């Protein structure tokens, strides 16, 4: 009888320990962010740097909040190494910027809520801004499989977009002529 009681007590203690450990592990897991950030999206195929060429129809911003040559801090992390990076403004343009989702033309996993493609990078679009749900092709080549993909517009904002140079906060890589960062994603240094 004593043996059975010790065995039952021991089993109860082990079961309680396992249950408490599982609860503790669940509580220490980080909460999932409510919006798509670099942690949720794989940008390993993204071309962080570019030639600096812009569409011929893209218009320079007349009076941008951040002037060309000024130094800023990137406050959004839609790619690893961006959030908190110091950047230099290379170009400022007035346009409509879009959050898009698409199936890469090169195959692979669908890209959801990619930031940003601008109106001038769309192929034969209707007048800006395009409504959410609109499907159109793009000639942007920010990521592998993006060029000539049919994209779905998820969100459109009329804004100033910036081309920036910055140094990645994660690997120290110098990124040149990065397209695009919106005015809302920058703050003065």
Task: Characterize the structure shown.
This protein has one helix at 2-28; strands spanning 59-60, 71-74, 86-102, 111-118, 122-123, 135-138, 150-167, 174-182, 186-188. It is an alpha+beta fold. The protein has a domain at 59-188: Domain of unknown function DUF1541 (SH3 type barrels, Roll), CATH 2.30.30.1210. Strands 1, 2, 3, 4, 5, 6, 7, 8 and 9 form a nine-stranded antiparallel sheet that branches. Strand 3 and strand 4 form a beta hairpin. The longest helix has 27 residues, at 2-28. The N and C termini lie far apart (74 Å).
Number of helices: 1
What separation lies between the terminal Cα atoms?
Answer: 74 Å
- Which percent bin holds the helix content? 10-25%
The low-confidence parts are 9-45
* CATH level-1 class of one domain: Mainly Beta
Shape: globular
Q: pLDDT average, as an integer?
A: 81
Structural class: alpha+beta
Radius of gyration, in Å, reads: 23 Å
> Can you say what the CATH homologous superfamily of one domain is?
Domain of unknown function DUF1541
CATH topology of one domain: the name is SH3 type barrels
What summary fits the major beta sheet? 9 strands, antiparallel
Q: Which series of helices and strands comes N to C? A: HEEEEEEEEE
Say how many strands there are: 9
Strand proportion, as a percent range, falls in: 35-45%
CATH architecture of one domain: Roll
Architecture blueprint of SSEs:
Elements: H1 2-28, E1 59-60, E2 71-74, E3 86-102, E4 111-118, E5 122-123, E6 135-138, E7 150-167, E8 174-182, E9 186-188
Antiparallel strand pairs: 1-3, 2-3, 2-9, 3-4, 3-7, 5-6, 6-7, 7-8
